[in-house]
């Protein structure tokens, strides 16, 4: 599959008609898994699945996300194993995501995540994060409880865990770092 519309705009038999709006809605759909495809971008058709809470788009060919703000109930998003190298203003693209998996990409900066205030769990393992200072962008996220950084060059720095947890100040005891 190359386009999300291949699923959301497939045969009319599987769609529910809603008067006064777009005639095709997936109102009962809450969990979508389109992993292991060749999706290169998220198109407008995702808006037809308004009630989606969990979306797995891992192992595709995404390098950016758009249109996900059209999913107001989205709380869990898996974007692992894609082609992300930069993240810009993710708060304007993801809305109120609580669980985010960006592992196995090519990220070197976490700055684009600095305003995802509802984020509770973040997996950025196996990326190219080299500097402890990149974690400072996450240290002001009030709901963040779980952070996974293993597999990044930063994890090889002497006393890496201590230095990362220091960035969280008083909240350090509330943070689960690398599943510990």
Describe the protein's architecture and organization:
By secondary structure, the protein is mostly loops. Helix content is 8%, strand content 11%. The chain has three helices and seven strands, in the order αβββαβββαβ. It has helices at 5-8, 91-94, 160-166; strands spanning 31-33, 54-56, 76-78, 99-101, 121-123, 146-148, 176-177. It has a seven-stranded parallel beta sheet with strand order 1-2-3-4-5-6-7, with no helix packed on it. InterPro entries: Leu-rich_rpt (IPR001611), LRR_dom_sf (IPR032675). This is Nischarin. Keywords: Leucine-rich repeat, Repeat.
What would you say about this model in short?
With 180 residues, this protein is mostly loops. 8% of the residues lie in helices and 11% in strands. It has helices spanning 5-8, 91-94, 160-166, and strands at residues 31-33, 54-56, 76-78, 99-101, 121-123, 146-148, 176-177.
Proportion of residues in β-strands: 5-15%
Helicity, in percent?
under 10%
Q: Strand count, sense and closure of the main sheet?
A: 7 strands, parallel
Gross morphology is elongated
Low-confidence parts: 12-21
Please trace the helix and strand order, writing H or E for each element.
Answer: HEEEHEEEHE
How much is the average pLDDT?
90
Number of helical segments with 4 or more residues:
3
Widest β-sheet, arrangement of strands: 1-2-3-4-5-6-7
Structural class: little secondary structure
Radius of gyration over alpha carbons? 18 Å
The total count of strands amounts to 7
